[in-house]
């Protein structure tokens, strides 16, 4: 498997509880390199554009409000099979269903406030990285 990049967000529930370092430790322990990282505070409109794929879902409004409720840390992670590997490190969307040792099992508060986002495919990873980062900010 080739070296891949994926896009990650440390969500407001986690930044509020000062969990950025603990989450980054799990990311790095899994062999993923943080090649770009910044702390931003999204507007509800920016969060809405990012999660536009979920526009028709009942939780969309709540999700956009939550993502704009506090700063987030946006990141680009690089490594072997990075997209699938990070999804494994994150765990299932609902922390109650997540495997032991995953970020969501350890830190998530609920299915909505679930501490991290990770891209689900190469196309979405490329789009999401380009939405938040300029090429010059990616330092492999
Ligand atoms: P993400 O996109 O954030 O990495 O999460 P995911 O793939 O595991 O889950 P997805 O189905 O894409 O949902 C995106 C985010 O929406 C919130 N959500 N809330 N209240 C609910 O039933 C519900 N379902 C999803 C979560 O924050 C989820 O991560
Ligand atoms: Mg998703």
TrEMBL record:
Q: Which UniProt keywords apply?
A: ATP-binding, Cytoplasm, Kinase, Magnesium, Metal-binding, Nucleotide metabolism, Nucleotide-binding, Phosphoprotein, Transferase
Q: Where does ATP bind?
A: 11, 59, 87, 93, 104, 114
Query: Mind telling me which SUPFAM superfamilies this protein's record contains?
Result: Nucleoside diphosphate kinase, NDK (SSF54919)
What is catalyzed by this enzyme? a ribonucleoside 5'-diphosphate + ATP = a ribonucleoside 5'-triphosphate + ADP; a 2'-deoxyribonucleoside 5'-diphosphate + ATP = a 2'-deoxyribonucleoside 5'-triphosphate + ADP
State the needed cofactors, names only: Mg(2+)
Q: Quote the InterPro entries the UniProt record gives.
A: NDK-like_dom, NDK-like_dom_sf, Nucleoside_diP_kinase, Nucleoside_diP_kinase_AS
Q: Where in the cell is the protein located?
A: Cytoplasm
- GO CC, alphabetical: cytoplasm
Please explain the role this protein plays, according to its UniProt record.
Major role in the synthesis of nucleoside triphosphates other than ATP. The ATP gamma phosphate is transferred to the NDP beta phosphate via a ping-pong mechanism, using a phosphorylated active-site intermediate.
Q: Which family, according to UniProt?
A: Belongs to the NDK family.
The subunit structure is: Homotetramer.
User: What protein am I looking at?
Assistant: Nucleoside diphosphate kinase
Organism ancestry: Bacteria, Pseudomonadati, Pseudomonadota, Alphaproteobacteria, Rhodobacterales
Q: Which gene encodes it?
A: ndk
């Amino acid at each position: 498997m080739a070296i891949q990049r994926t896009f990650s967000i440390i969500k407001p529930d986690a930044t509020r509880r000062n969990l950025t370092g603990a989450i980054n430790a799990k990311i790095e322990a899994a062999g993923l390199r943080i090649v770009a990282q910044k702390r931003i505070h999204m507007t509800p409109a920016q969060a809405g554009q990012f999660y536009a794929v979920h526009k028709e879902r009942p939780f969309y409004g709540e999700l956009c409000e939550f993502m704009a409720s506090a700063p987030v840390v946006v990141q680009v992670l690089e490594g072997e099979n990075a997209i699938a590997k990070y999804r494994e490190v994150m765990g299932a969307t609902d922390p109650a269903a997540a495997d032991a040792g995953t970020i969501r099992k350890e830190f998530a508060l609920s299915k909505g406030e679930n501490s991290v986002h990770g891209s689900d495919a190469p196309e979405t990873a490329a789009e999401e990285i380009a939405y938040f980062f300029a090429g010059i900010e990616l330092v492999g």
